[in-house]
Amino acid sequence: MAEDFAKAVEDGLHLAKRVYLGKDRASMEAPKPPLPPVQALADWYLPSAPMVYAVISDPRMVDNPDMPSYQPHVHGRCDPPALIPLQMSGVDLEVDCYGDTAFVQVSGKWRVHCVMGSRSCDCRIAFPMGNQGSILGVEVDLPGKSYSTELIGVEESKVIEKLARPQDGGFLEPHIFTLTVPQVDGGTNIGIKLRWSQKLSYNEGEFCLTVPFSFPEYVTPAVKKISKKEKIQLNVNSGIATGILCKATSHPLKETKRQAEKFSFLYEAEILTWSNTDFSFSYSVSSSNIFGGVLMQSPPSYDRDQRDMFCVYLLPGSQKSRKVFKKEVVFVVDISDSMQGKPLEATKAAISSALSKLGPEDSFNIIAFCGEAFLFSTAMELASEEAIERATTWMSAKSTMGGGTNMSNPLEKASEMLSNTIGSVPMIFLITDGAVEDERNICDQMKKRLTNAGSLSPRIYTFGIGSFCNHYFLRMLAMIGRGDFDAARDLGLIEVQMQKLFSKALSTVLADITIDAFSDNGQIEVYSSCIPDLSFESPLTICGRYQGRFPDTLKANGVLGDMSNFVMDLKVVRTKDIPLDRVLARQQIDLLTAQAWFSENKQLEQQVARLSIETCNISEYTRMVLLEKNKLDKANESSGALKKGDPGAPKRVLLQSLSVGFGDLIATAENIRPGAVEQKLPSAAEAFVKATSDCCGRMCHHCCCMCCIECCSMMNNQCAILLTQIFTALAIIGCLECCTLCCCGQNGQ
C-alpha cells in the first residue's frame, strides 16, 4: 500500500509539469534530487511532514487555476489516481509536553494550485506521527464547508449508511495517517489542523522529543512574493522535578517563560523554504538516583467516572553505573512458515545483539517453536563467548517450519527452566507473528504459575510482528508477567523495536515494586494489578482512580540489582496544570482493553469506549467518522435547530476501522506472512510489458497499456513508434483507454 502511494506521488510530480506559471518562471516541477534505489522508492516519496495531495484521475484538469495555459489534449484516465503534492503557504507547530507524553498540533494552509478553477478534485491529507503516535483528530476548513473527525461507539456506527473506501481514511503505515477530503475546487485555499499524541524517548536521564517536520522542496510556493511564515511553539511541564536543563534543539528556539518545572519556547520567522529537518528537543532531569512522586487531579466535568485520578511515576535517574540485576533469559521464538524471510532474519539479528550484551555471570537458552518446540540446550547455559557463538550458529541454521503454532508448550518449558533461580531476574521473551485459540488459557496457566513462584518470578516480555497476532493477548501476558509488550507492524522496524525491548528488559534496576497504599484498599483502583520493573532505559508510570481520602505520601518498596531492599517516600501533589485525563488516556485504554479481552467483560468494553470518545483516542470499541458541515447551517446548528436526521445536519461518513484488532486465527493457520499483499497484474498489461520495455526503461502503472511515463517531458522517435504500435494493438483488442502521462506535453509545447 505504501509502495502504491509512493508511485502515485512520483507520477503526480511528473503530471505537475503541466502547470505553467508564465514566461519568467519555471513549471511546477519538483527539484531533481538523486534518484533513490528501487527498494527505497516508498520511503523516498512517503510524507516526512504533514502533506496534502490533489487526487488526479482525469489529467485534463491539471493546470494553473490563475493562469490557464493551452495544454495538448490527453486521452484516458489515471488509474490508480496520481497524487500531486499541494504547495503550502504557512505552518504552525504547537507542542505541549507533560512528562514523557507530548500533544502535537500542526496548523497549515495549502492551496489547490494544480487544478483548473472550473474543476474540482479530492484532496488527500497524509501526515506521519512520532514515537508511538496516536491520532487525536483532523479539522479541515474550506470556503463553504468544514470537515472534522469524531469517534463514536461501534453500535452507533452500524446505522451509518455511507462507508468510506480504504483510501479515504486510515493508516498508510502504522505511523502515517491519511484522510481524503472530497471535491475541492481548483485554486481553493485549505486550512487544516492535525492533532496527535506521541511519546518522548528516554535515555540516561534525558527526555527527547522528535516531531516529523521535514518538508520536501516542492511544497514551497513557486511565486516568491507569497509570504511564508513558519512558527513553532513548545511548552514543557515536566510535572516531576524542578531541576531540569534544556540540552539540544533542532530549530532556533527562544525561551519565553521559565517557572520551576515549566518552561516555554518560541520560534517564528519569514522563510524562503520550509523546514527540511524534523523538530527535535531534549531536556534532562538533574537527578542521578531513582526518584519519583504522585500526581493527583479531579476528573473533568465531562467524565462519567467522577472518581479522582492519580499517577505514580518513578524515574531511574542518570547514574548508569548503578548495578543491574544478574539475568537468566529464555528466548521463545516462533518459526512457523509465516515468519519466513524478513521477520525471522530480523529476529535472529536482534537476539544475537541481545546475547552479546549478557555478562559472563548471566545465563540463557533459546526455544524455537511452531507445532512443536526445539531447544538450543536442555539446560540454561552461561553466557560465555563460546556458548553465545554456538547459539548464534544454531539460530542462523534455523529456518521456518510448517505446521501449526503452539505457544503453550514452549512457554511451559521456559518457565520450568527458570523455576529455581536465585539472586537474579529470570526473563522470558516471547516473539510471534500469529494468534492461537488457547490464548486465555495460556494467560490463566501463566498467572497461576507466576503467583506460586513468589518473589522474583519469571518476567514475561512479549513482541508481536504484524497485525495477525493478538496484540492484547501479548499485552495481557506481559502484564501478568510484570514485563512489557511491544510490536512492529512495519516489517522494516522489527529489529530496531525488538532491540529496544531487549535493551529495556536487560537494564532493570529496580524489581518487585510495591506501593503500600495499594494493598487491600478497595477505594483505590490500579489499572495494572502487577507493577512492572523499573528499567534504566524508561520511566515507569502507574495510573488509576480513587475515591475518599488519598494519603499525603506513598511508600514505594522494591529490590535493587545488588539484592538489597529499596524504600522511598513519594510526595503526593495535586496538580491543575497537567491534563491527567489526556496524558494517561492512551495507557488506560490499552491496559483496560487487554483486561476486557481477557475477562470478556462487557462493562470494561463500555468503559473503554467512553474513555476513547471523551479523550479522542481510537480504540477497539469505537469507530472514527468524518463530519461534513455546511457553514450556512452553522447558525441553525448552534441554536439546536438541526438534528442528525435533518437534511441540513452534518453528514457523517464512517471510516475504515483504525484499530489493530484481536488477531487473525485463519491467517495464522494458513501461515500468511505479515504484510503480505495480494499482487494483481492486469491481464491486458501483460500483453504489452515486453513491447514497451525498451521505450524509456520505465513502466507506467496507471493503465493497462503500460506506456512509458518519461514521455511526459520528452518523446523520441522510438517512443512515438512504440506508442503507435501499442495504440493500434489496443484498438484491435477493444481497449478504449491509454496512458495519459505520455501525452501531457510541456507548457503548451
From TrEMBL:
<feature type="domain" description="VWFA">
    <location>
        <begin position="328"/>
        <end position="518"/>
    </location>
</feature>
<protein>
    <recommendedName>
        <fullName>VWFA domain-containing protein</fullName>
    </recommendedName>
</protein>
<dbReference type="InterPro" id="IPR002035">
    <property type="entry name" value="VWF_A"/>
</dbReference>
<dbReference type="Pfam" id="PF13768">
    <property type="entry name" value="VWA_3"/>
</dbReference>
<dbReference type="InterPro" id="IPR036465">
    <property type="entry name" value="vWFA_dom_sf"/>
</dbReference>
